[in-house]
Amino acid sequence: ANPSLLILAGDGIGPEVMAEVKKIISWYGDKRGLAFDVSEDLVGGAAYDVHGVPLADATMAKAQEVDAVLLGAVGGPKYDVLDFSVKPERGLLRLRKEMDLYANLRPAQCFDALADFSSLKKDVVAGLDIMIVRELTSGVYFGTPRGITTQPDGSRVGINTQVYTTEEIRRVARSAFELARRRNNKVCSMEKANVMESGILWREEVQWVHDNEYPDVELSHMYADNGAMQLVRRPKQFDVIVTDNLFGDVLSDCAAMLTGSLGMLPSASLGAPMANGRPKAMYEPVHGSAPDIAGQGKANPIACILSFAMALRYSFDQGDEATRLEKAIETVLADGVRTADLMGPEGGQPVSTTEMGDKILA
Ligand code: NAI
Ligand code: MG
């Protein structure tokens, strides 16, 4: 059977950028003998408009069955007034939670043609290719006790608790080591073991997984504050970085800006291996639904296309085809083809979403 893919294009520019990915998926079937069983469904505001919820149960069930989910973006001003329980983002959160996608992969990859776009010096970022693995389902965003309480003297206390279990740390560490074996065999784990108990456990458990299961991978540990500094100072020293939910949130946004535009950033969220050995997986661009440019043909489809390239590599064992796709993007950028978000101050004539997709295909 062909590998299966569920496409949830979502709202705003989601369907616009996804249309370009669909062209590429068809191309793989026609030209490379790599056919996918593609189904499509609604998520976010689009699902709310039809079903009154941002993710229908039937869609959730489908997501659990396929080899990978490819998501566009959700949300928009039209839905800002909705009750929290049916907001578009809840559709995304439900997918992540019920598929138990605990490892969030955020690559920071710098295409040479865009090195000038970085906030850093060109030689610091040219050729950069690192991957941050952020624990996504536990840690301080979820730990209890939590809440705001009022003291007898009237002052208030805000409480969040960082909780990590052995298994939560080990499983995300395994995701990072597996990735490292497909890349450059190097993992740096970041925490604050100097001041946090959960940090001590994190360091010990990552080391345990390394010593017992992945002794062939080079492992180092770094305090997360130093990690932030090193990411900006000399990012090319890293390959795979694994870290907790909170530090990962901050460090991945920081790393993202090493490479320039939001329109270029893909991501993957992986869970436990399924019966066929593939991890549960959802791939999506980092950007949102961009209501300010939606419906105008201005959106950059590259983040979504690169998300599909990650699916090729991490769900479908098609690393060479993923590289082919990334090379096509690099070539097009080197030729000076730019969507509006990639135009420098020197200006020029931007191409549309569709034209960018077509150039990459060509
Ligand atoms: P956003 O990522 O949608 O847009 C931020 C800025 O970047 C805008 O100026 C937009 O035009 C630009 N931009 C984003 N993607 C682009 C692309 N592919 N090509 C060219 N320019 C691009 O974030 P914002 O404005 O904070 O949120 C807009 C809506 O998206 C909100 O409803 C928000 O809740 C939702 N959102 C959804 C996410 C998701 O589906 N994963 C993530 C972030 C926000
Ligand atoms: Mg963030």
Throw out a few tags for this protein:
about 350 residues, alpha/beta, Isopropylmalate Dehydrogenase, 2 domains, ten-stranded mixed beta sheet, two-stranded antiparallel ribbon, 12 helices, binds 1,4-dihydronicotinamide adenine dinucleotide, binds magnesium ion
Question: How would you summarize what this structure contains?
Answer:
The protein is of the alpha/beta class. The chain has twelve helices and twelve strands. It folds into two domains: 1-112 and 262-362, Isopropylmalate Dehydrogenase (3-Layer(aba) Sandwich), CATH 3.40.718.10; 129-257, Isopropylmalate Dehydrogenase, CATH 3.40.718.
CATH topology of the largest domain: Isopropylmalate Dehydrogenase
- What is the N-to-C order of secondary-structure elements (H for helix, E for strand)? EHEHHEHEHEEEHEHEHEHEEHHH
In CATH, the architecture of the largest domain is 3-Layer(aba) Sandwich
CATH C-level class of the largest domain is Alpha Beta
Count helical runs: 12
Based on DSSP secondary structure assignment, what is the total number of beta strands? 12
Mean pLDDT: 95
Report the bound ligands by name, code or SMILES: 1,4-dihydronicotinamide adenine dinucleotide, magnesium ion
The 3D shape can be described as globular
- What's the gyration radius in Å? 21 Å
Strand content: 15-25%
Q: Catalogue the unreliable spans.
A: none
How many structurally independent domains? 2
- The strands making up the biggest β-sheet line up spatially as 2-1-3-12-11-4-5-10-8-9
Distance between the termini: 28 Å
Biggest β-sheet description: 10 strands, mixed
Structural class by helix and strand composition:
alpha/beta
CATH level 4 superfamily of the largest domain: Isopropylmalate Dehydrogenase
The proportion of residues forming helix, as a percent range, comes to 25-40%
Pfam families: Iso_dh
Binding site for Mg(2+): 225, 249, 253
Family: Belongs to the isocitrate and isopropylmalate dehydrogenases family. LeuB type 1 subfamily.
Keywords: Amino-acid biosynthesis, Branched-chain amino acid biosynthesis, Cytoplasm, Leucine biosynthesis, Magnesium, Manganese, Metal-binding, NAD, Oxidoreductase
